[in-house]
Task: structure prediction
Amino acid sequence: MPGPRPSESVVVGPNGRIVSLSAAWFSDGARRRAEARRAGRCVECGRDLPHHRSPYCSRKCQWKFHGHYFWDSARTYVLLRDRYTCQICHGRRRARQLDVDHIVEIAAGGAALEYSNLQTVCRDCHRLKTQNFMRERRTLDEIPSPDRPGLHITS
Ligand SMILES: [Zn+2]
Ligand SMILES: [Zn+2]
Result:
């Protein structure tokens, strides 16, 4: 089930962290949770609910659903999904030694809260990946583009 479109609901800080969300959680999220409780089906996976007090069948679905709206929950869910294993070097670490990384950086147009764009990485791999990204960006910036002043195209 797709979450809200990131561009509408997510505000991303200059360092790539998600700093705040719009009212999506309170409008779209609340409506979907209420409907799920009424239908007796988990709002995330659609399985039958054990009781109607909660719209989630499990803690995992709770984190997963929250994660469509909130970074901290998305992070918790991705760590669980990836079994606390770095997806680059495949080393298993403790949660505090792991980061959740955007496979396609937000600065390059990657979706901020899309599970398919999130992966667990260890601190070392994350640092290397970020360094490479910054280096590539600098290289791209040095290539003159037609709409930049100083480059004249004659035809
Ligand atoms: Zn569920
Ligand atoms: Zn690693």
About this structure: Residues 6-142 form one domain. The longest strand covers residues 98-102. DSSP finds five helices and four strands in the chain. Residues 3-7, 150-155 have pLDDT under 50 and may be disordered.
